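quick q for whoever's on today - can somebody do inverse folding on this one?? i tried earlier but teh output was garbage lol. tokens:
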């Protein structure tokens, strides 16, 4: 059984369309059978027809997970490992942790292959690729969560954006509001009610004048939902492939369906005692491109 809420993307869409796109390996015949048996509910009301749904509706699907999902085939790539931590490369199209719609997550696969003691120390968006760091014990997890919170670990991303960024380096300071119902965030130049401050630093790596693109190194000073994607789009440089904050015509031109964004480097910059992880200070874990 699975529950999920209808996002704005599926407002006024047919129930079958929403379910089949949410669970994209589900056999339509299984769905039609579930409808006939009234095993689908909208806002806790049983339905037997292909009704129109609206933003915020809660859909409950009484179909076993084995039929709803096809387990992704992922060969885990270890980027670094010691007695306390392990860093993997996360591909796109998989969430780090459990959400409303997906049983198989990157973490569930990691635990299956490397042990249930492993826990993620930070997050990446579903379609953002790159380094994801796991702890091997509770002590390491507590330390790393604290270090991420206190900005003693730098997270660097590489992003390809549309447009030529002329400033070599800039620290952007704005405000972000998260609309959970729409699964979107909004950026404001000035403080507003319920908007949180965000800081995004970028440095130009290269420019491609023929393609009209710029490749950036992004250093996150704050880690809000969709911060990099929304912040760069806000200043006029959307990430190529980003279907949420980017430009669909540009995405089609480059043949990308997911954002060209990778978490490619983690720097341990401890300012305070780090207990059993002191040896990591000044270490970098990097994906070589």
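ok took a stab at it. sequence:
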């Amino acid at each position: 059984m699975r529950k999920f809420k209808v996002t704005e993307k599926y407002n006024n869409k047919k129930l079958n369309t929403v379910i089949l796109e949410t669970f994209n390996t589900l056999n339509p015949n299984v769905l039609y059978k579930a409808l006939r048996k009234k095993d689908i509910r909208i806002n806790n009301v049983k339905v037997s027809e292909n009704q129109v749904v609206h933003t915020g509706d809660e859909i409950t699907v009484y179909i076993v997970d084995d039929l709803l999902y096809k387990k992704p085939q992922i060969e885990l790539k270890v980027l670094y490992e010691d007695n306390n931590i392990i860093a993997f490369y996360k591909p796109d199209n998989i969430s780090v942790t459990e959400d409303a719609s997906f049983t198989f997550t990157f973490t569930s696969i990691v635990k299956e292959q490397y042990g249930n003691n492993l826990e993620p120390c930070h997050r990446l968006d579903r379609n953002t690729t790159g380094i994801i760091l796991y702890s091997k014990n509770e002590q390491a997890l507590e330390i790393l969560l604290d270090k991420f919170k206190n900005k003693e670990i730098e997270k660097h991303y590489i992003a390809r954006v549309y447009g030529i960024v002329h400033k070599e380096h800039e620290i952007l300071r704005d405000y972000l509001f998260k609309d959970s119902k729409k699964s979107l965030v909004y950026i404001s130049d000035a403080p507003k009610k319920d908007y949180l401050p965000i800081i995004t630093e970028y440095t130009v790596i290269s420019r491609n004048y023929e393609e009209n693109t710029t490749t950036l190194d992004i250093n996150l000073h704050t880690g809000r939902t969709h911060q990099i994607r929304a912040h760069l789009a806000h200043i006029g440089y959307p990430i190529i492939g980003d279907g949420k904050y980017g430009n669909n015509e540009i995405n089609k031109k480059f043949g990308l369906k997911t954002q060209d964004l990778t978490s490619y480097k983690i720097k341990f910059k401890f300012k305070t005692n780090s207990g059993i992880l002191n040896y990591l200070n000044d270490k970098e874990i990097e994906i070589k491109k």
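fwiw DSSP finds seven helices and 17 strands in the chain. also Residues 138-149 form the longest helix (12 residues). so keep that in mind when u check it
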